[in-house]
Design brief:
Helix content is 38%, strand content 17%. By secondary structure, the protein is α/β, with parallel strands linked by helices. The protein has one domain. A seven-stranded mixed β-sheet has the order 5-6-4-2-7-11-10, sandwiched between helices. A two-stranded parallel ribbon has the order 1-3. Strand 10 and strand 11 (270-276) form a beta hairpin. It is globular and about 50 Å long.
Amino acid sequence: MPMKALKSAVKSAIAGVQAHLRSRAHKRSAQHVTRADLARDFTTLGLAAGDTVFVHSSLKSIGYIEGGPRAVFEALRDVVGPRGTIVVPTYYLPGGSIYATCKMPDYEFDPRVHGTNLGALPAAFLTFDGVARSIHPTHSVSALGQHAEYVTRDHHRSPSIFGTGSPWDRCIELNGKVLGVGVTMGPVTFYHVLEDRMGASFPLPVRLPEECRLPCRDWQGNQIVVPVVPLDPVYMQRRIDNPARKDLQQFFWSEFERAGLLTSGKVGAATSWFIPSRAFYDHLAMMMGQGLTIYSTPEELASRVQA
């Protein structure tokens, strides 16, 4: 075996052993939860039959789940029922960001081949029978339930990632609930709907001026081209999803809680929350009018608090 291949095999084996040891330690130390426990917690939180739920989640925060990651979505289905819809980000971003992915030579997204690199929960969601998945080279979204096809079917025709006809736009139309399970208000792509709808009226030029046209394959194997305008990397360091911006994450949590829009509780061991999507969008627009966005600096936040 060539030395390079041998090193790769050894590295892979070591990573596998380490993952196994972490899993055993997690099983010993974490709170154990079942599908029934999760369904009870989702109901107590405020989810109900017929809801459309856009899920942002962290698997390890929930505890040790009997039945694995699939049990989380099985529990959600138990709660929202056959008239409900579960929507999950299943992005495939091989470049690590929109900009880097756009710059990859010869990249072509194919939903028949590409899974998701967002972790175990989104990957588990893709294994359910009947899941519909949007065709998009950076932000493919999947859904299961009554409105799954409607939420996902026109994403590749949307003029922007989060714009008209996108899964986020459709969730606002359905007044779905934006759900966070074990995550802060940082990693929530719903924020970008405001930027795409506002365009040049948004206070900061957070999109690059260039439009990339990325090839994709549809479910029949036909090639289609999807327009993508990357977020400007210059603004990433100050954005709410940056781990260093805990001040901004906490500010948004307090702001939406104070406005009576954020409902919080526990799902398993995970601190969880939801906000109705129309109210979420309207409040983001109101905050923008007051000079506050997911890019606000510590100084801008301090001035709001003092006022």
